[in-house]
Design brief:
There is one protein chain. This protein is α+β, with helices and mostly antiparallel strands. The strands form 2 sheets. The protein has a 4-stranded antiparallel sheet with strand order 2-3-1-6, with helices on one face. The chain has a two-stranded antiparallel sheet with strand order 4-5. A hairpin with a 6-residue loop joins β2 and β3. The N terminus and C terminus are likely disordered. It binds one DNA strand of 10 nucleotides through β1, β2 and β3.
DNA sequence: GTTGAGCGTT
């Protein structure tokens, strides 16, 4: 008899219900389209985001699915967790991180180095500094980040084929 | 045809 008081699914603490679900244990071949098909059963989605390895370009085996409604996310989490997808048992939980890390603060967030007083260098020195090496995890200010602004534009494999050397301006490869 | 349980800057 399972008298677990908690849903101890892993090393992380139980995240609070959220419209963002983390999906783990994916097959490398499971695409965002696949996930969209599966998870849109439970409600309208605002986005699906498979995390790819930056080096190999392939899936890291986990993804994030964004629901419009938290109830749908909850239902999806309950139902999709443990389901078999592409031959893998996927695990679904509420995401603990909100979004990809701050897209970019872009500039050094500390004080500019006091440059000997009165230096009138007109160049607005936007130093990127070692910001990216530091713990930007502490800048968790993206509570209500509107995901509609970041529509991804994935380059299509057809694109390179049709890409003309002279004009590469306004091609709109067919969506499908 | 990678095997782990993981949380993201394409």
């Amino acid at each position: 008899p399972m008298s677990n008081r908690r849903r101890h699914t892993g090393s992380r603490a139980n995240p609070d219900p959220n419209t963002c679900l983390g999906v783990f244990g994916l097959s490398l071949y499971t695409t965002e389209r696949d996930l969209r098909e599966v998870f849109s059963r439970y409600g309208p989605l605002t986005g699906v985001n498979v995390v790819y390895d930056q080096r190999t370009g392939r899936s890291r085996g986990f993804a994030f699915v964004y629901f419009e409604r938290i109830d749908d996310a909850k239902e999806a989490m309950e139902r999709a967790n443990g389901m078999e997808l592409d031959g893998r048992r996927i695990r679904v939980d509420y995401s603990i991180t909100k979004r990809p890390h701050t897209p970019t603060p872009g500039i050094y967030m500390g004080r500019p180095t006091h440059n000997g007083g009165g230096g009138s260098s007109s160049s607005g020195g936007r130093r990127r500094d070692s910001f990216y090496d530091r713990g930007y995890d502490r800048y968790d200010r993206y509570d209500e980040y509107d995901y509609r602004y970041s529509r991804r534009r994935s380059p299509s494999p057809y694109y390179s084929r049709y890409r003309s050397r002279s004009r590469s301006r306004s091609y709109s490869p067919r969506r499908y």
